[in-house]
């Protein structure tokens, strides 16, 4: 999911004309400017010390209830929000708002800005009702002071929309985000990064609320903007096209979905190294479309249906090879550095590679099952072990790579592993193999036990998230 406002744009300088120049006020300005500079360069520890000093100097130079103290409180609160020291940030935001209300009244724009920042603190903690109250009040103030077409008003409107979506109010959320996009477009910012991100979020809302037609409209608009502004030499354009292709696939528009995914794959092979994990992911998407094509062809031409499956199998073979290479390389690097678990960029790459590896092997198992059915319909004698072999490799891959702690906790990894377990169990139940029945029954029981265990883990994670 995509959020604005998690950066450092909330730093404020609140000033009025009644500054009494003295040593404390001079120090306040120096500490504030230097703190902002350190903050903007990611030197948070240095910035914290400077902002603490600025707060103390503001109190001594301007007085405890002066707006400059509110500014200093806000700057320090923003730093603590970025550091995720939420318990330290909250009282500072509250103090800043109280001082500003006392100095300028409850409907002043500076109060609105502070409330917006306070809403961000609650949003990042998923304290959604508290965030909603802050954003709604900030939105009301900004509309009164700035007017309904101001980009700052649109910014708070977008953030309120994200909160409402997380609260399950999809219709209200979409309306607010659409309006925030309109304001940007009418203000000449329709091709800005901010506008593109809002379009992406709006498309996600429509996809998650099962409105693919609306999602498709937004995704086509976004792709058109990126094609004109950045062209196909940009990964942003490729990712937007891929998103549209997946929506088209979901509604059965397989021809256009395949054309887009093929163009995405060609672009990625030009822009990225040949063993990049994005190329593997693209191949999995394309393989799935070809499997769906095969499913449509089986009623008319079994030979063509099998030919499509063979093309899909080649793509899955390549995606399996790339994903495994990425994982083995990262694991080797990890062991050489003697880290207990991967983190940062390498951890994300390993997670993505494992998900793609499991998806590819799971899809290969389904492909082999489908191919066996088609060959049986032509009275051929296929080998039924290929599907089981692919799914067994999927389980082995999870045990080889997925036990690394940072990935074993991933619901996405576990969900793909669970799908593989269920698919293999179903195959074993339906198997007509007569030999080794006792050992197969034992293996099947192990699978069923593992399925129950993983389902319980995923259920527990869902409860914790809610």
TrEMBL record:
Segments annotated as TPR repeats: 112-145
Signal peptide: none
Keywords: Coiled coil, TPR repeat
SUPFAM superfamilies assigned to the protein according to its UniProt record, in alphabetical order: TPR-like
PROSITE patterns from the UniProt entry: TPR (PS50005)
Gene3D superfamilies, per database record: Tetratricopeptide repeat domain
Transmembrane regions listed in the UniProt entry: none
Segments forming a coiled coil: 437-464
Name assigned to this protein: Uncharacterized protein
